[in-house]
Amino acid sequence: MLRRFFLVCYFVAFSSVAVAADDVVVIVNQKIGVNKMTRDEVINVFLGRNRQLASGVTALPLDLPGSSVERERFYLQLTGKSMNEINAYWARLIFSGKASPPAQVRNQEEAVQMVIDNRSAVAYVARNKVSSSATIVYELNAK
Amino acid sequence: MYFEMKKIRLIVLCVATGVIPVAHGESLGGLDFTGSGFLSVGAGAMLDGTNGGVAGRNCPCFITDYAHSSVYDGRGGLQWKPESKLGLQGTVALQDSRFSVTAQAVARSAKSGNINLEWLYGTYQLTDSTSIQVGRKRLPMFYYSDIQDVGFTLPWTHLPPQFYGWEAVNYNGVNLRHQTRLGEWDTTLNMLAGSESINDSGYWKIYNGPQSHTRVKWKNILGGDLTLVNDWFETRLAYIQSGTERQSETVWNNASQGYVAATDTRLTGQGSRQNIYTLAVNMDPGNWLLRSEFLYIHRPGATYNDTAQLAGVGYKYGDWQVMATVSRYRAVAANGGDIQGQEGHVSRALTGRYNLTQKSAIKAQFDRQKEHGGANWAPRYGDARLFTFSYDVVF
User: Among A108, B147, B195, B208, whose Cα sits 20 to 30 Å from the Cα of A65?
Assistant: First the structure.
């Protein structure tokens, strides 16, 4: 009985680490024609290198506000770079006329709503903010 | 100097208090407006070096920006004039259209705060991965050329002067840019054509004296650059060719310690062609930062070709970063040029950076410049040791 109790505890603890509610995930509109994205594809979309998805749709990436913890975690886990480095990267592209940064939304709720309303929108939010009307295409903990 | 300091203080105050709005976009009457800007407040102190008068300057002298004639000289105390600058950029786009117009104005303390419109171009997005731009832009000779004024994006207080020091940094013309993915490589190809005309060259004030006047033309500019990125590895190749002309009215004469009419045939309108080759290989593995660039300029009708190299290694630790850099310039005699007349310099720099916020940083840098010119090379700016620091922000 005791062994069974510890086993349950182990699985609860393990699953809470593996799929934490505040993990950052990348979501898209269900009609975008993409069910999965690779790390390189997510980097390309959010760093403005190549925004054309495998389905042929040109992605419209959305950024959370600069003060957002999820934004900092997203870029750090995705690229290994701090927000200072990401901002320096974008300054380089903005002031040389090479690319535009992702459009900025006010909060995670707005990001989710824009993804639901806009076929080409791509956003990152905490897992517990994801609506069933959006598709998770990349998990930052995934290898 | 008093008014320049007042200007700088006003700018800092405006940014800090939000009088200059933090960037951003607005829509009005079918047009989308976006704005952004950058500010660098820099100062430096000459520590020591070769004493003497050179081209009307009291040296030791350290040139931080040839194109804009930014020079730290032998006066004592902090010098604020050479490197502070404010840039504002605005873009207007027709809503639901592929066309936009961008302008970037820069005020430099080196030019007494006068505002110059340095970028003004229209962009038409031909496809999602291809765009054409027409207007005035930065000449993309080197890796950091496009953002040479945006201190926040640079790992130094100023670009390595032995590498980033040329008479033309902008051009008027057209460029076509295409992005694609080749296997594992994110690839950007840019092709350009145009010309540049400078009425009062800052670059030639370095050599001919601060009060000299030299007109410079780069005609029939044609070239392109190719950038390949794979995760933390990035390489960039560029080729640019043009015809060059320059005409000086007066030049500094060391013998008479005054300005005289230019008689050197190289300064009186004789044209020459140039073929510019550059290569950059940069890496950012983990916390490391590796920078390298190479330049060769072939001038078929001249007695000297240009070579320059840059190498830097840095390490990031949290919000801190340290970087050591070496840059070297050397003219190489050709077509009967005097080997003892070759110009040459080497600079070594040690830089520390601390990120204050997500969009601002402070930096401190120690530079050591050594003269490596031939015995007949004049003017000689000599050796110099310089300490500089800066506050850089983008908004």
Answer: B147
A99 band by pLDDT with thresholds 50, 70 and 90: confident
DSSP code string of B235-297:
EEEEEEEEEEEEEEEEEEETTTTEEEE---GGGBT--EEEEEEEEEEEE--TTEEEEEEEEEE
Count CB neighbours of A97 within 10 A. Answer: 23
Contact (Cβ atoms closer than 8 angstroms) between residue A126 and residue A19: no
pLDDT score of B7: 43
Q: Which residues of A touch B153 (CB under 8 A)?
A: 88, 91-92, 95
Residues in chain B with CB shorter than 8 Å from the CB of A95 are 36, 38, 87, 89, 104, 146-147, 149-150, 153
What letters, b where the CB count within 10 A reaches 16 and e where it falls short, cover B48-85?
Answer: ebbebebbbbebbbbbbbbbbbbbbbbeeeebbbbbbb
> Tokens 């709005």 correspond to what residue?
B21
Pairwise CA distance, residues B123 & B117, whole Å: 17
Residue B269: the pLDDT is 55
Residue B32 touches partner A, C-beta closer than 8 Å: no
pLDDT band (50, 70, 90) for residue A11: very low
Residues B226, B75: contact at Cβ < 8 Å? no
Judge whether B245 and B197 are in contact, CB under 8 Å. no
Weakly modelled stretches of chain B, pLDDT under 70: 1-24, 264-271
CB atoms within 10 A of CB B97: 12
A118 burial type by CB count under 10 A (0-12 exposed, 13-18 middle, 19+ buried):
middle
Find the angle CA(B178)-CA(A104)-CA(B229) to the nearest 5 degrees: 30
What is the per-residue pLDDT across B188-200, written as a single tens digit (0 to 9) for each?
Answer: 999 999 999 999 9
Q: How many CB atoms lie within 10 A of CB B342?
A: 19
Cα-Cα-Cα-Cα torsion A43, B231, A93, B42, nearest 10 degrees, comes to 130
- The three-state secondary structure class of B192 is strand
Cα distance between residue A5 and residue B36, in whole Å: 58
Q: Is A50 on the interface with B (CB under 8 A)?
A: yes
Q: Which domains are present in chain B?
A: 45-79+125-394 (2.40.160)
Which helix (H) or strand (E) element contains residue B219? Answer: strand B213-230
